[in-house]
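Hey,
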Amino acid sequence: MTDPVDRLLELFTFDELGDDVYRAVNVDRGHGTRVFGGQVAAQALAAATRTITVPHHLHSLHAYFLRPGRPGIPIDYDVEETRDGRSFTTRRVLGRQDGEVIFEMSCSFHGDEDGVDYQLPRATDVPPAEDTPARMLWIPDEERERIPFELRELGPSDADDTGWHRSTRRVWMRIRRRLPDDPLLHACLITFLSDMGAVMAAMAPVPEHRHEQMMAASLDHALWFHRPIRADEWMLYDLHAVSNHGARGLTRGTMHTEDGVLGVSVAQEALIRVLNDRQQKNRSDGNL
C-alpha cells in the first residue's frame, strides 16, 4: 500500500500544458462529492511557485471557492504572472475543471528584509502535543494510519460569563514524517492543513444547533505567513468564531510551533445554513 505521505505529495505532481497552465492530480478518494478545498488551494499555490524564479518567500494568499470541485476530474491551474518586482512577486491563479472556473487565488511573495520582531503569544492553557491524546474528528480509529497527518484535538475553550469562547477549535497537527527542507513545500502543506476544521470553528457554539442540522461550505480563505515553520513539526492551530450573521460565519486563527513561534495567521468565511426538516432528510438521503 502506498505511503500516505507519498500520496499527499503526489497531489503536487503536474502536467505542464504550456503558457503557465498546470494540470494537477485529482483522484476520486471516495470521501464525498466535493474536492477538499485545502487540496485545491495548496495545488494552486504549488502551481504559482513553479513560476517564481527569485528567492522570494510566500507571505500571503487570498482565495475564493467559487464552485465545488468534482473528485476524479483533473484540475487545470492557470497562473498569471501579475508582478515581478525586486521586493515582491505576485501571482493570480484560476482553477478550472472542464473549462469552468471553480477557484480563484492571489498570492504574494516577499524577499528577506530586516525589521521589528513582535508577535501574538501562543495560548498558555494548552498542554504540549505529546501530552495530548491522539484524537481525530471525523476519522475512525481504524483509518488513522492511512492518513498522512496527525491531529490531536483539544476541543474549544470554556465560555466566559458572557458566553464568549476564546477558542472554538484547538488542535495540534503535523505531517506524519520528516520532509525535505523546502519552505514552499511546507507552505503548500500548511495551506492544505489550514482548511481542516476551519468551517467547524466558524460555527457559533450554539448547543441547540447540532452539526447534523447545518450545511456549511467554505467561501473564501486567507493566510499570512509571518515566520518559517515546518509542516512536519507540531503546530497548534487555534481558531475562534468572530461572527455569525446572514448565513455566513467568519473564523480567525493562528498556527504556533510548540516553542511559541507564530508562523501563520488564517481567516476564513463560510456559508453556514440551518437546515429545515425537509433539507435534513434530503441530505441524509444523499440528495443535498
